[in-house]
Amino acid sequence: MNNNPFVLGNAILAIALVLLLFMGRAWEIMGPAAMVLWVALAATGIALLMKDPKQ
Asked: What total of structural domains would you count in the chain?
């Protein structure tokens, strides 16, 4: 796997998407921390996408 920020950002956003799809169950388990985790993942993924100057 290529470790450039674009690929890493997309991978993190994919994890955020899976969390969003299962947010109901995650909310039952983690409470409001599930939403905080989702926001952190989405922000990190977008930041990494915007960081890569080649794309």
From this structure: 1
pLDDT averaged over every residue in the chain = 90
What pLDDT, in 10s, does the model give residues 6-48? 889 999 999 999 999 999 999 999 999 999 999 999 999 999 9
In terms of residue numbers, what domain contains 12? 5-51
51 three-state secondary structure: helix
Cα Rg of the chain, angstroms = 13
Q: Rounded CA gap, 1 and 43, in Å?
A: 22
**pTM for the full predicted model:** 0.84
Judge contact between 46 and 13, C-beta under 8 A: yes
